[in-house]
Design goal:
By secondary structure, this protein is α+β, with helices and mostly antiparallel strands. It folds into 2 domains: 119 residues, 60s Ribosomal Protein L30, Chain: A; 71 residues, ACT domain (Alpha-Beta Plaits, 2-Layer Sandwich), CATH 3.30.70. Helix content is 26%, strand content 36%. The chain has a 6-stranded mixed beta sheet with strand order 2-1-3-4-5-6. A 4-stranded antiparallel beta sheet has the order 8-9-7-10. Helix 2 runs parallel beside helix 4. The chain is globular.
Length: 219
């Protein structure tokens, strides 16, 4: 058993599941676009909906979007900080179906593009990203992650993988729009060894995102 499992992560907030886990899911979203979204909407499910106020889940989600550190005392003021910089944000309670009780779906706009990321907090600050733009996945954020919106056509995946020089831990691929011939490719890598410019210049790539792994959980 590691020290993290015994003492718990360094954090601000009353609950590693309802506060830290929520913050990490939102921070994944922030890293996904490498910037502040133009607008963000949080859909809270199950326990997250019930602890939104008492355990500071809402404040934690905003703090993650603001990219605050996990032990930053300003987490409690995340509402004020978000309003000060003009971030448009909102919350909603909804039943997301047969998912983990600590689940949030984050809907956000950035530079004219719209995305949705769904994640759950499974305890001790650990999380799982379960969906990216309706593509089922199971990311624990222990790996560097490439997310690519690409053409749904023969050899598109082969061309994307030709730009990667690292061992692939996991790969998820699904078409998201048959008429527009669009798909999403999600690749978890042991190392961040890939040719960024080559990926961006591929004519099969519409959008490219890179989320570096989070070292909080000792990965």
């Amino acid at each position: 058993m590691g020290l993290l499992q015994i003492l718990g992560p360094v954090m601000v907030g009353p609950s590693s599941s309802h506060t830290l886990g929520a913050m990490r899911i939102a921070k994944f979203v922030r890293k996904f676009i490498s910037n502040l979204p133009d607008e963000v909407h949080f859909v809270l499910h199950g326990s997250f909906a019930m602890t939104a106020e008492g355990h500071g889940t809402k404040k934690a989600l905003l703090a993650g979007i603001l990219d605050l550190d996990y032990d930053d005392e300003r987490i409690a003021q995340s509402y004020t900080l978000a309003k000060q910089i003009g971030l448009k944000f909102s919350f909603e309670v909804a039943d997301l179906g047969d998912v983990h009780p600590n689940t949030v779906r984050v809907k956000f706009h950035h530079n004219g593009l719209y995305h949705e990321i769904e994640g759950c907090s499974i305890g001790g600050g650990a999380i799982r990203i379960k969906k990216i733009d309706d593509v089922d996945c199971d990311l624990n954020w222990n790996y560097d992650t490439l997310i690519i919106i690409n053409k749904d056509e023969p050899k598109a995946l082969m061309r994307i993988l030709s730009c990667v020089n690292a061992n692939i831990a996991n790969l998820y691929l699904r078409r998201i729009n048959i008429l527009q011939r669009r798909a999403v490719t999600i690749i978890e890598l042991d190392e961040s060894k890939f040719n960024v410019e080559k990926i961006r210049n591929l004519d099969v790539v519409f959008e490219y995102y890179f989320v570096p792994k989070d070292h909080l959980m000792g990965s």
